[in-house]
Amino acid sequence: MTRLPDFRLETYFTRWEFTARHHLTASDSQTMTMAEVLALAGPKDREAWDNLALGYTETFGDPGLRQAIAGMYEQVEADDVICFGGAQEGINLAMQVLLEPGDHAVVLTPNYQSAETIPLSLCEVTGVALDERQDWALDLDAVEAALRPNTKVLSVNFPNNPTGTLIPAADFARLAGLCEERGIRLFSDEVYRGLEREPDRALPQAADLSATALSLNVTSKSLGLPGLRIGWIACRDRELRARLERAKHYTTICNSAPSEVLARIAITARERILARNRGIIAENLPVFDAFFAEFPELFEWRAPQGGCVAYPRYLGPDGVEDFCTALVEQAGVLLMPASMFRSDLTPTPTDRFRIGVGRRDPGPALDAFADWLRKR
Predict the structure, then answer these.
(1) 22: which of 124, 358, 365, 371 fits an S-S bond (Cβ 3.0–4.6 Å)?
(2) 133-179, pLDDT tens digit by residue?
(3) Is 337:109 a contact under the CB 8 Å cutoff?
């Protein structure tokens, strides 16, 4: 593997995430305390927590956790699941296992940086950009045209980070069909599934649609529990799952035992947690609507269709990079400028920023933001 570039978003977070007064670009939902999570536990899981021995766990993941995860899918069994230390490990190891020199991958943009840079470190990659002019629509013909005889992976992310867009379920099914027909692995980042503004627009999960597809998910985003560091890949190809387990021997080996029990509790109670988090977003969106309505000359705003992040356009003459820098330095309000989502594969917007809408009580952050704008 060639040397990976700096992870721009994480480097930016290293500088500002825990020093800025107002974290207004959070990509996760409102989190929970240990007491709140444990209050959701049934008797069996509570006993498992109270009597937990802090030894090694199974590389594939705790059997009870994998059983709970399998319950999120229609076609997936516990033995089709392998757990990782967050989604990032899953992305990294899946690409290492699926791609090698001489292969080709297709990645949709904009996206989380590692979805692009890790494949690029391994083989040739083609990007297909979501159409900003059409509310981030996906051109299926452009995806099909990008596929080659040596294409091994098509990587997608819906609800999308950073745009919050969704595609029609029929289009997603067509992507899965295209991949199956051509022997391509559909790698589907589904970490925001469950936070759709219209729940009936939730896409099918790739692992349910195709026996060769991979569904990536995590406790961090929709469930708002990033501190657990528990992610997973569901795939009905058991041989591939075994290869992923062998790759994991060189990284985390196994997950944290306490995190696995807490994740099992949260996933078992996921409908209650997701309902709470959708409620927070629904309560927040009118507040964000009102904020952006006050400054129409500076922003073009559209609420996300799914997930808890949005990608507004900044219209000011100073440009979004200088704007975001001045905002965090002078007002302590952290946003994520467009350069953090720049692609080396396709042209990407340079005038947008990511803002988070999933945390409780955004009022103080938006007040500080508005006060700073009024004084400029």
Answers:
(1) 365
(2) 999 999 999 999 999 999 999 999 999 999 999 999 999 999 999 99
(3) no
* pLDDT score recorded for residue 2: 60
- Quick check: pTM over 0.85? yes
CA gap 235, 145 in Å, rounded: 26
Question: How many angstroms separate the Cα of 244 from the Cα of each of 23, 62, 73, 211, 220?
Answer: 35, 16, 20, 16, 21
User: What are the structural domains of the chain?
Assistant: 8-33+271-374 (3.90.1150.10), 42-269 (3.40.640.10)
Which one-letter amino acid corresponds to residue 352?
R
Strand (E) positions, the chain? 22-23, 81-84, 104-109, 124-129, 151-157, 185-189, 214-218, 231-234, 299-300, 309-310, 313-314, 333-334, 336-337, 353-356
Q: Find the length of the chain.
A: 376
Q: How far apart are CA 322 and CA 148, in angstroms?
A: 40
